[in-house]
Design brief:
This protein is 45% helix and 15% strand. The chain is built from 10 helices and 7 strands. Strand 5, helix 6 and strand 6 form a beta-alpha-beta unit. With 276 residues, it is α/β, with parallel strands linked by helices. Bound molecules: NADP nicotinamide-adenine-dinucleotide phosphate.
Length: 276
Amino acid sequence: MAENAFPTGTLMAGKRGLIMGVANKNSIAWAIAQQLAAQGAELAFTYQGENLLRRVKPLAESVGSDTLLECDVTDDATMDSTFAALKDKWGTMDFLVHAIAFAGKDQLAGSFIDNTTRDGFKSALDISAYSFVDAGRRASQMMNDDGAMVTLTYLGSERVIPNYNVMGVAKAALEASTRYMAADLGPRGIRVNAISAGPIKTLAAAGIGSGRHMFRFNKAASAMQDNTDAKGVAGAALYLLSDLGASCTGETHHVDGGFHAIGMPQEDALRASLES
Ligand code: NAP
């Protein structure tokens, strides 16, 4: 198997789903898409604006998808047209991947209490948390009864991470929404879960102040003493979206090399991270 290949198989054969949040080849959603396609899934993608279409189209084509739908999650008209197009094309669907978040750069640095504005708070919560509720409701209306949804979150929802600020609050709302959605959709057999990924170098991660220090510290302080691999996140998404994940819902599953489990890093690793 080639170094970057994703494990192939038929776990997702016959299943169709929407991937929201591929910006480029480094996006976590792209790793998930490749893993799902390698297991036989049929995929549709959303993109935001013509610039992104240029980047997303060749990626989508490489996994056999010609369904690219323009969608800004703050715009009801594009949400309506996205799900109407899916309904026309597929009639029903089996899964949703939500990998979308945004906060203004001015909200992601320095003091949370001083720098968080009303507009910054509203837009971070709208784009990063409400969009999952909205997309999840729309997807559930055309979802088969054994369907599944996954969103992406981060430890900054549970603990204070420097500069993560309002995004931590948005991720807390996203995780709570995951539990409420799981309860609403559970009787139909539809499962809703969140993956709490460790830091991965993507466009979104580049917007957070002190990113370099974050990667160094995570590598030193995680149980596995390494940074998180997007392929590990994709594998967890495959488990949660396929029948392997039956009975698992309302969960926030950490895929971060065990960083969340550590109370205090090993002394040598901590010293090395501070000195490097
Ligand atoms: P990414 O490649 O930059 O993906 C973020 C996506 O969100 C982009 O496709 C972006 O599109 C989209 N987006 C933002 N605002 C939108 C809007 N109004 N409408 C539609 N799409 C919008 O970064 P990523 O790291 O893979 O992020 C995916 C998810 O993983 C996010 O929820 C992020 O918080 C989460 N996560 C990331 C990490 C990490 O370290 N990278 C760790 C844990 C969790 P545009 O580029 O057009 O804005």
